[in-house]
Amino acid sequence: MRFGVTIPNNWGIADPRQVLAMGPLAEALGYDSVWVMDHLLNSGYIRERLDDKPYYHPLATLSYLAATTKRVTLGTSVLVLSYHDPLTVAEALGLLARHGDEARTLAGGQSLVPILDLRLARPGQVIDINRVGRAGHHESGSRRRVPDRSSGPPARARALAADP
Question: CA distances (Å), 80 to each of 28, 39, 96, 107, 127, in order?
Answer without folding.
Answer: 29, 7, 17, 17, 12
